[in-house]
Amino acid sequence: MFKIQTLNNISVFGLERLPRERYEVATEIQNPDAVLVRSADMHKIEINPSIKAIGRAGAGTNNIPVAKMSQRGVPVFNAPGANANAVKELVLSGMLLAARNIPQALDFVKKLDGDDHAMHKAVEDGKKKFVGFELPRRSLGVIGLGAIGVKVANAAVELGMDVHGFDPAMTVNNAWQLDSRVKQALSVDDLVSKSQFISVHVPLLDATRGLINADRLKLMKKQGVILNFARAEIVDEAAVVEALNAGTLHAYACDFPSNALKGNPRVIATPHLGASTGEAEDNCAVMVADQIRDFLEVGNVRNSVNFPEAVLALAPGATRLCIVNANVPNMVGQITTALAKNNLNISDLLNKSRGDIAYTLVDVDAAIPESVAQEIAAIQGVLAVRVIPAK
Ligand SMILES: NC(=O)C1=CN([C@@H]2O[C@H](COP(=O)(O)OP(=O)(O)OC[C@H]3O[C@@H](n4cnc5c(N)ncnc54)[C@H](O)[C@@H]3O)[C@@H](O)[C@H]2O)C=CC1
Ligand SMILES: O=C(O)C(=O)COP(=O)(O)O
């Protein structure tokens, strides 16, 4: 029986992927094998040594101590692209809300009173305060052309916008998806200076903290709109508030309300709703639950943010050793020597590495005694060892 702890609400469609006869799933559970999480801050909680995997039912993993988990030999999985359409749609709403001054207009309407005749007159007199602008031919700069950025850039092209993108580490797959009408910016500054709208779609890292700052806001075109549906810290909030108050920035649409932003009429803030659609919640939960199950039951690694991709079909009757080790020379040599010494025959083997971590799957055509697993665990550089008994 595997024990799964959920730290946030996870869609039942995902939880149903973990059969009840083999999985116990609860918010409070002793010695869990794995954790399913959305935005709960795992930096602030004790992570039980029993945990073998963490599944983030979403994209961003800045709420998880990933480096610490790597040192422990624990993979962190996420659900790349599973909520990208939901975020794209909210970004498009942000652009339209900002361009047509809709939040201010809705507020004006809420405050109307008097009879219908008086209201109608106030509407016709008042509407001139909310004159907006249209999107075709307006420029949009997209920083980060991953699952979300590509979708935002493509949709904006379809709306007739002039779109530039910047991403120095774009994947080939995302490049294939990107509309050929999206122009490549040479740097963030180049992109900012060409853009009236800027949308950030990068993970929160040291390199992306404060990416949009006071200097860059000064480079933007007039009536600028910043869209931040990535993470609060990627935009320097104080600089944005200053630009909004000075009237040099038209609007700040973001998914991260704060006291500094509260009450500012030019701020359009949603309560971290980017991934909050039924579709996105189901997609993320299903994807990550399948990945956790494949890891716990077979040792396979798909869509991990700290482990290499490692998928090896497990032959019926084979016992599998899953070994996480430092990516240094002679690890596979030592592992296979330990097996040979104990007269264990290897039927299949996969060794993959990513950065400092290597992951080795070894299939053996006999049972693996606990003493052999311990011998391998004792090899210097081995971080975690797991035996998956033959089915
Ligand atoms: N508001 C919400 O509810 C949601 C927010 N997010 C946020 O959006 C972020 C992006 O999500 P996805 O597009 O799914 O991730 P992704 O991993 O598919 O794309 C991120 C892209 O950013 C690029 N990048 C990294 N550093 C960069 C830099 N310094 N300059 C330019 N590009 C850089 C990467 O090369 C990658 O292509 C997540 O990390 C998360 O923080 C994601 C989903 C929902
Ligand atoms: O997927 C992401 O990165 C998100 O920010 C979504 O967060 P959530 O799952 O809605 O708490």
From TrEMBL:
Pfam families on file: 2-Hacid_dh, 2-Hacid_dh_C
Alphabetized InterPro entries for the sequence: ACT-like_dom_sf, ACT_dom, D-isomer_2_OHA_DH_cat_dom, D-isomer_DH_CS, D-isomer_DH_CS1, D-isomer_DH_NAD-bd, NAD(P)-bd_dom_sf
Keyword Oxidoreductase on entry: yes
Transmembrane segments: none
Domain ACT: 320-391
Known catalytic reactions: (R)-2-hydroxyglutarate + NAD(+) = 2-oxoglutarate + NADH + H(+); (2R)-3-phosphoglycerate + NAD(+) = 3-phosphooxypyruvate + NADH + H(+)
Entry keywords, A to Z: NAD, Oxidoreductase
The organism's place on the tree of life at top rank: Bacteria
Enzyme Commission number(s): 1.1.1.399, 1.1.1.95
CDD domains on file: ACT_3PGDH, PGDH_like_3
Pathway where it operates: Amino-acid biosynthesis; L-serine biosynthesis; L-serine from 3-phospho-D-glycerate: step 1/3
Keyword match Oxidoreductase: yes
A GO MF label: NAD binding
PANTHER family: FORMATE DEHYDROGENASE 1, HYDROXYPYRUVATE REDUCTASE
Function, in words: Catalyzes the reversible oxidation of 3-phospho-D-glycerate to 3-phosphonooxypyruvate, the first step of the phosphorylated L-serine biosynthesis pathway. Also catalyzes the reversible oxidation of 2-hydroxyglutarate to 2-oxoglutarate.
Family: Belongs to the D-isomer specific 2-hydroxyacid dehydrogenase family.
Protein name according to UniProt: D-3-phosphoglycerate dehydrogenase
